[in-house]
Specification:
Helix content: 25-40%
Strand order of the largest sheet: 1-2-10-7-12-5-4-3
Number of domains: 1
Number of strands: 14
Shape: globular
CATH class: Mainly Beta
Order of helices and strands: EHHEHHEEHHHEEEEEEHEEEHEHH
Oligomer: single chain
CATH architecture: Sandwich
Bound molecules: 2-oxoglutaric acid
Distance between the termini: 45 Å
Strand content: 15-25%
């Protein structure tokens, strides 16, 4: 879905501040990616990603549930990406979240800069992540805020965050995001149940953990870029988080690396794109894959996406369920009594801090993190 023609283009917001997204002329060196460029969008084949209708599962229909389980299992073992429709989220909530996103990025740069993410925190506005990195900058602006899954535990909801941090004139934007996050989270929790069933473990195993967790909600805005082949909207990375519930507008740009080839995830307004993150990969003992993906930009159209990154509680000890360890035993594992662990225990909070302050997420985040924690004292079991 493109921005409504009537709304001002966020990139046109006038600003007295230097902004790397409004270069003149040409592409500043820090945006040039030193690796092979993405190439024109239409040369990238579409990812063979199942579109799973959740309707039957949500209504408790057995046949449809079995079908959804099979599709989830196949996709998660192959690459960890799939799309879901029939999720029950009102499309007007999604449209309202995009309108809210247009309001956020349409603010004058002077106001956005005032909302810049402060050092040591995760939340707020960022252009090109230029506060953290100085090369291979992504051609995008982002706005990030937190969303507590158990609202009873929430000390400050999304509405209050916007009212306090952005201003009273953004209360309705906060409401739009609050409702969107609530609905997207419910979809994520339903998928956690399908994941558990597809692995043959207790249906509520993952959803129980994540009901007490929180999400990082990131709104991405990609302005058009003259030099689309030389830069990147979001660089190649695996999500360090657990499960991503993403909505992309109709422009297209999300790509997944499979068998050494980039493949496009075709946008659908009625669908969420779901992918497994590194932490969920660890929670499934590596059976389900967290896969490298990126977002490319294009010359003509701005693009937006809404990513809800679901996380367990920070003090949660990340480990696969014991019954899964028995079912994932391979012949070579016999000596280990069937309990071969691919990853050591870690707390999600450790991984969160590692990726926010020490390591730029890429294809090897989990491996690098594990190497780091393996040299430290192991966390105590709860
Ligand atoms: O914009 C997209 O489609 C993907 C965004 C993404 O991967 C991210 O924000 O981590």
């Amino acid at each position: 879905m493109e921005s409504p023609k009537s709304s001002p283009s966020p990139s046109s917001a006038s600003t007295p501040f230097p902004c790397p997204l409004n270069p003149s002329p040409g592409l500043p060196g820090e945006f040039v990616w030193s690796r092979e460029g993405p190439g024109p969008l239409d040369l990238v084949p579409a990812l063979d990603v199942p579109v799973i209708d959740l309707g039957g599962f949500l209504r408790g229909e057995l046949e449809e549930t079995s079908r959804a389980i099979e599709l989830v299992r196949a996709a998660c073992m192959a690459h960890g990406f799939f799309q879901v429709i029939g999720h029950g989220v009102d499309l007007s909530l999604i449209d309202a979240a995009y309108d809210a996103t247009d309001r956020v990025f349409g603010m004058p740069m002077s106001r956005k800069v005032g909302l810049r993410r402060k050092e040591g925190t995760f939340w707020g506005y960022s252009y090109a992540h230029s506060d953290r990195y100085s090369s291979n900058l992504p051609w995008k602006e982002t706005f990030t805020f937190g969303f507590e899954h158990n609202q009873a535990k929430s000390t400050r909801g999304v509405v209050d965050y916007f009212a306090d941090m952005v201003g009273r004139d953004f209360v309705h934007v906060g409401w739009a995001y609050q409702k969107y996050c609530e609905a997207a989270k419910e979809t994520g929790l339903a998928i956690m149940e399908l994941i558990a069933m597809s692995l043959g473990v207790d249906r509520g195993h993952y959803s129980r953990i994540f009901k007490e967790g929180s999400s990082i909600m990131r709104c991405n805005y990609y302005p058009p870029c003259e030099k689309e082949e030389e830069t990147m909207g979001t660089g190649p990375h695996c999500d360090p988080t657990s499960l991503t519930v993403l909505h992309q507008d109709g422009v297209g740009g999300l790509q997944v690396l499979l068998d050494g080839m980039w493949r496009a995830v075709t946008p659908r307004h009625d669908a969420f794109v779901i992918n497994i993150g590194d932490t969920m990969m660890a929670m499934t003992n590596g059976v389900y894959k967290s896969c490298l993906h990126r977002a490319v930009v294009n010359k003509e159209k701005e693009r937006r996406s809404l990513a809800l990154f679901m996380c367990p509680p920070e003090d949660h000890l990340v480990a696969p369920p014991p019954d899964l360890l028995l079912t994932t035993t391979t012949k070579d594992d016999d000596d280990d009594d069937g309990k071969v662990r691919k990853y050591p225990d870690f707390k999600w909070g450790q991984m969160l801090r590692f990726t926010q302050s020490q390591y730029r997420a890429d294809v090897a985040t989990l491996e690098s993190f594990i190497n780091t924690v393996s040299n430290q004292t192991p966390p105590k079991s709860r």
